[in-house]
Automatic annotation (TrEMBL):
<comment type="pathway">
    <text>Purine metabolism; IMP biosynthesis via de novo pathway; N(2)-formyl-N(1)-(5-phospho-D-ribosyl)glycinamide from N(1)-(5-phospho-D-ribosyl)glycinamide (10-formyl THF route): step 1/1.</text>
</comment>
<feature type="binding site">
    <location>
        <position position="98"/>
    </location>
    <ligand>
        <name>(6R)-10-formyltetrahydrofolate</name>
    </ligand>
</feature>
<dbReference type="InterPro" id="IPR002376">
    <property type="entry name" value="Formyl_transf_N"/>
</dbReference>
<dbReference type="GO" id="GO:0004644">
    <property type="term" value="F:phosphoribosylglycinamide formyltransferase activity"/>
</dbReference>
<feature type="site" description="Raises pKa of active site His">
    <location>
        <position position="136"/>
    </location>
</feature>
<dbReference type="InterPro" id="IPR036477">
    <property type="entry name" value="Formyl_transf_N_sf"/>
</dbReference>
<feature type="binding site">
    <location>
        <begin position="5"/>
        <end position="7"/>
    </location>
    <ligand>
        <name>N(1)-(5-phospho-beta-D-ribosyl)glycinamide</name>
    </ligand>
</feature>
<dbReference type="Pfam" id="PF00551">
    <property type="entry name" value="Formyl_trans_N"/>
</dbReference>
<dbReference type="InterPro" id="IPR004607">
    <property type="entry name" value="GART"/>
</dbReference>
<dbReference type="GO" id="GO:0006189">
    <property type="term" value="P:'de novo' IMP biosynthetic process"/>
</dbReference>
<feature type="binding site">
    <location>
        <position position="58"/>
    </location>
    <ligand>
        <name>(6R)-10-formyltetrahydrofolate</name>
    </ligand>
</feature>
<feature type="domain" description="Formyl transferase N-terminal">
    <location>
        <begin position="2"/>
        <end position="173"/>
    </location>
</feature>
<feature type="active site" description="Proton donor">
    <location>
        <position position="100"/>
    </location>
</feature>
<feature type="region of interest" description="Disordered">
    <location>
        <begin position="188"/>
        <end position="207"/>
    </location>
</feature>
<feature type="binding site">
    <location>
        <begin position="83"/>
        <end position="86"/>
    </location>
    <ligand>
        <name>(6R)-10-formyltetrahydrofolate</name>
    </ligand>
</feature>
<comment type="function">
    <text>Catalyzes the transfer of a formyl group from 10-formyltetrahydrofolate to 5-phospho-ribosyl-glycinamide (GAR), producing 5-phospho-ribosyl-N-formylglycinamide (FGAR) and tetrahydrofolate.</text>
</comment>
<protein>
    <recommendedName>
        <fullName>Phosphoribosylglycinamide formyltransferase</fullName>
        <ecNumber>2.1.2.2</ecNumber>
    </recommendedName>
</protein>
Length: 207
């Protein structure tokens, strides 16, 4: 995470509820000032920071991030708007999901809300997807629609999308933890034989 930590807060609150099925073992950030780190510490959850600027190249940073994740042995890594492309050093060792403020494959990248408004769409939304080596190209787990109002600007639309994101992310993480999942091509199926158990997770966030 590197921002206000609203998604991390939602996951921390959900994990404290009986029956959710998962626990947060750590919250990580790419900068020391991320507000979500304080939220995690207040909840008694371990935190860590791996600043991108501390490393000579992207591969070194990915290797350091993977090493920190390894220390917690998470079954699932939750990347909530983490604005870094994760490399093979991370993705070959960890299952990562991401929340994105658009209905993928429309409007990938860092400016999804702005791009949706500029295109003039009437409906956008949010997507939870598995992370692969591309930019918001991994298989979709779930999506929710948000209508664009005539007087919306980027800030107002993004705020409504974030409200939907938080609810959907909590629901998806809970279901992955309780039911397991499998991947067939680009289809992510909840329930049935587990591709990987998901009782603990590390949360990363960038908003």
């Amino acid at each position: 995470m590197s921002g206000a930590g609203s998604n991390a807060a939602a996951l921390l609150d959900a994990a404290a509820e009986p029956g959710f099925g998962a626990s947060v073992v750590a919250v990580g950030a790419d900068r020391h000032s991320a507000d979500g780190l304080a939220l995690a510490r207040h909840a008694g959850v371990e935190t860590f920071t791996v600043p991108f600027a501390d490393y000579d190249d992207r591969g070194d940073w990915n290797a350091a991030l993977s090493e920190r994740l390894d220390a917690y042995r998470p079954d699932l890594v939750v990347s909530a708007g983490f604005m870094r492309i994760l490399g093979a050093e991370v993705l070959e060792r960890h299952t990562v999901i991401n929340i994105h403020p658009a209905l993928l494959p429309a409007f990938p990248g860092a400016h999804a809300v702005r791009d949706a408004l500029a295109y003039g769409v009437r409906i956008t939304g949010a997507t939870v997807h598995l992370v692969d080596s591309g930019v918001d190209t991994g298989p979709v787990i779930d999506q929710a629609a948000v209508r664009v109002e005539p007087d919306d600007d980027t800030a107002s639309l993004h705020e409504r999308i974030k409200s939907v994101e938080r609810r959907m992310l909590v629901e998806v993480v809970g279901r992955l933890a309780r039911e397991g999942w499998s991947v067939q091509g680009r289809q992510v199926r909840l329930g049935g034989p587990r591709q990987s158990p998901s009782t603990e997770y590390v949360a990363e966030e960038n908003r």
